[in-house]
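Hi there,

I know you've been waiting on this one. I reran it after we fixed the sequence typo, so this is the corrected version. Both the input and the resulting structure follow.
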Amino acid sequence: MSRLSTSHMNHSAVNQSDVCQEYSCPERSVSLSVYVILYAAAAAVSLLTVFGNLLVIISVSHFKQLHTPANILILSLAVSDLLVGLFVMPFHLSWLIESCWISGPVMCSVFSFVTFQVPTVSVHTVALIAVDRFLALSSPFLYSEKISPTVICIATLFNWLFSLLYNFTLLYVNNFTDVMCPGECIYVLDEISSLVDLIVVFLMPCTLIIILYTHVFVIAKKHATAIRALQIHNRTESSKNRVSDKSERKAAFALGILVFVFLLCLLPYYIFSLTNFLKNDSFSNVINSVSVLFYLNSSINPLIYALLYPW
């Protein structure tokens, strides 16, 4: 995202030959057993991401009772996370293990574009899910009348097309095809592009997510309080009030997990990108390592957005 994985150099007027001279492929210093374990772990994480999101995609697509607006957004999120598992994780983890890009310039172009496109879609989809849940809880009658699966499909398509146009423009402005180094897969974003990317892909959607989920929690708490008052009025508080309290705690816990995990995966990367206190190989190594946590969000999403629900 601002952006994942490839070396993100937040300074303008960078000469390609100077950048490429900074990088070289060091000889592998780990033992064969450690080498095998690292690749086995990388394969396991990638497969977990692929099959977890594939399960969500098949479930939502196959069962008609799951064709709801909220589940269509979850389907879109699963598709973007599936692409991370297929086209981003294997190459990025291999790059970290080898300390060198071994997949060639063509795959570097594909890899870099996907690392721009897919996370943008993913973050904006999570924001759309927050909007959907807020509308469903705050205005249930309006939601049932106006928000149909067709409307959500149009919003999802617009999200993907907007991300495609935005990222293509961002890469074109920064001469994406001109920054390819032997043994390295890098791109250079100037300071203005980095700031715009930070706002569009991180600050705006994350601020919206936090605000809306806070409102959702407040509304849910008011509903629980109203139910408790009704139970007291009906003299059934002794048994059912505990159920209400349990539901309230469960809702708060679920919302807390959603926001906490999402921000936990995103914040470290953007903190390093924003501060950019290291402008050399050390920054490249740190940001590429922190990006792994960013990608792990695609592995965790199926558990959060699907397996915690009864269906």
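Quick highlight: The CA atoms of residues 6 and 112 lie 7 Å apart.

Best,
R. S.
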